[in-house]
Amino acid sequence: xxxxxxxxxxxxxxxxxxxxxxxxxxxxxxxxxxxxxxxxxxxxxxxxxxxxxxxxxxxxxxxxxxxxxxxxxxxxxxxxxxxxxxxxxxxxxxxxxxxxxxxxxxxxxxxxxxxxxxxxxxxxxxxxxxxxxxxxxxxxxxxxxxxxxxxxxxxxxxxxxxxxxxxxxxxxxxxxxxxxxxxxxxxxxxxxxxxxxxxxxxxxxxxxxxxxxxxxxxxxxxxxxxxxxxxxxxxxxxxxxxxxxxxxxxxxxxxxxxxxxxxxxxxxxxxxxxxxxxxxxxxxxxxxxxxxxxxxxxxxxxxxxxxxxxxxxxxxxxxxxxxxxxxxxxxxxxxxxxxxxxxxxxxxxxxxxxxxxxxxxxxxxxxxxxxxxxxxxxxxxxxxxxxxxxxxxxxxxxxxxxxxxxxxxxxxxxxxxxxxxxxxxxxxxxxxxxxxxxxxxxxxxxxxxxxxxxxxxxxxxxxxxxxxxxxxxxxxxxxxxxxxxxxxxxxxxxxxxxxxxxxxxxxxxxxxxxx
Length: 515
Hints:
Layout: H1 13-31, H2 37-58, E1 63-64, E2 67-68, H3 71-82, H4 84-87, H5 92-103, E3 111-113, E4 120-122, H6 123-127, H7 130-134, H8 139-153, H9 158-164, H10 174-186, H11 192-217, H12 219-231, H13 248-261, H14 265-279, H15 287-300, E5 302-303, H16 305-329, H17 333-347, H18 356-361, H19 372-380, H20 382-399, H21 405-410, H22 413-419, H23 431-438, H24 444-467, H25 471-498, H26 505-508, E6 511-512
């Protein structure tokens, strides 16, 4: 791991680095396209140092002895993927406490979440049916499962272990399970070097995505992405750090934007397909490219081959990947169970989620709209809710016409914000609007978008000092993300009104339907 700054100063980087980034972004916007080579070199060096410091911040914490490993996240995804055939999506916690009873009876928890119903279940009730859960395993697999559970239990305090077993379980898609299960079955928890290697997959994916950004957008975009990952409030907690393959989908989306920028549309489509099938909701980002293709076809009578190639590759890759996951898991049952589990999970109102839904509800915990009242309120205004969604999708369709295909893909942030309300750490997809703004950083209005993203991170840190994680904090963040979504729409609208041709002639003049 990187070690540039003494550890006692790391906590100050979450404020210092974004401020430096903001100053440099403003300087780039003021300089425009003037050469000023020496000054630009100094600014690039400062950005590089900031990026390295941000990576040091990113790799701090989550240490267990000699391992840099997020035990909480690893437990859910390593165990959930490795034992997917035995546990499915609902038996993880039950089997865990049965294994605990045989290996660590003195540290037993009192209750767990029943993943079938979402309610709390006494451990004593689970233990009365212990043979049912042991029967899911062969004798050898049960012994291995017990060793793995002991590995994670020994790295958690009693309160942390209790918290883990009251979470929402394993929620990855069957396709992700194919990849995650292959890796976790190949690496035993007894293999310390192997476990550390599993942690480093995410770091490698993040660096690969940033290298692609360097290739497609230049050093400024790559370094700013690293600063964002290491300092933004929504990335500051440990959920995505030292975890097991949690960044695969966003790395694929970032690389897809870069590939589209460099005219590798088919590769971009395939990468986007993995992102969509790995987490489902990233599929909404495809809307922009599809809208641009339709807009060109309907209003310009032009066949945009780049968008078509992207969409075709996305469709083919989606079919192949989905088909492979069905074959590998032995049928559609895993996907049915996944959608059933996630469907119930998404119906919950959570204090840790961010999206327009929570602005729509305006549910402070001191109002009658919180809890059951909030869901009732939401259900009673479904017509208004869907009307707003329709307006957002229509607005995105109308303003996308003057964007490049890679910018249209990044514009997917707007429908993603309005239509979904994912848990806060999924807002790592802010990396896509960052690429959108970084591509035109010399324009003050676009550079301001980058500044705004870093400002939201600083505001998040300040609010966290006041309120801790909870509804008030993430309601504020929902409002801030809503401003960003509307700002992106306004910029795209200005481009469409200006009618300026894109800088890339190949994108400006798609092949016409008739010659």
